[in-house]
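Give me the fold.
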Amino acid sequence: MRKYELVMIARPDLDENALSEVVNKVTNWINESGGQIEKVDQWGKRKLAYPIRKQTEGQYVQVNLNIPPTFAPQLERNLRYLEPIIRFLVVQV
């Protein structure tokens, strides 16, 4: 198990329930792979440095997690196809 940090930017028009559903979906993927969630930190809505998909704001969520190194590419692939997520970054800590 390795430590990773995931930062996701979700669409700004999502309400709290929709955002929590997206976060729950991601945490379920991590738990099903045998990983562990250390911390989920929702930063709220912030202005983006440049427009992404014609959006100038986004809702930031940071997740600290422990997952097997073989699951990291699969997590990135799943996040790429999750429609409410406009940008993400997975970094090994």
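Strands lie at 2-10, 36-52, 55-67, 85-92.
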